[in-house]
């Protein structure tokens, strides 16, 4: 399995409703792409102060590297990025393969 984490800081100009809409669109996009095995989302609630300003985490799981690689250029992912990317101030993506 591959875990694909997207850590985000949304622009300060976004309202809570705007952020909720981005979360809804991300979840819908993930649901519409067969290669996505699972999707989770959550805002940061750590008290450690080590997030470097990143406030939200989107976690997608893929069964294989090939599934992740098919997702990245997928037309629905590309269309989603056209809407999502302009709303973010900062982003970090981190993938890893789950050890068996």
UniProtKB/TrEMBL annotation:
Highest taxon listed in the record's lineage: Bacteria
Chain ranges of the Stress-response A/B barrel domain: 2-96
Protein name per UniProt: Stress-response A/B barrel domain-containing protein
SMART domains in the cross-refs: Dabb (SM00886)
The species this protein was found in: Hahella chejuensis (strain KCTC 2396)
Subunit relationships: Homodimer.
Cross-referenced InterPro entries: Dabb, Dimeric_a/b-barrel, HS1/DABB1-like
SUPFAM superfamilies: Dimeric alpha+beta barrel
Lineage: Bacteria, Pseudomonadati, Pseudomonadota, Gammaproteobacteria, Oceanospirillales
PROSITE patterns associated with the record: S_R_A_B_BARREL (PS51502)
């Amino acid at each position: 399995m591959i875990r694909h984490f997207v850590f985000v800081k949304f622009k300060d100009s976004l309202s809570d409703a705007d952020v909720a809409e981005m979360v809804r669109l991300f979840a819908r996009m993930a649901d519409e792409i067969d290669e996505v095995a699972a999707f989770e989302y959550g805002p940061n609630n750590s008290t450690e102060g080590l997030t470097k300003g990143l406030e939200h985490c989107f976690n997608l799981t893929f069964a294989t590297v090939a599934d992740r690689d098919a997702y990245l250029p997928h037309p629905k992912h590309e269309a989603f990025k056209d809407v999502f990317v302009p709303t973010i101030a900062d982003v970090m993506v981190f993938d890893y393969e789950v050890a068996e």
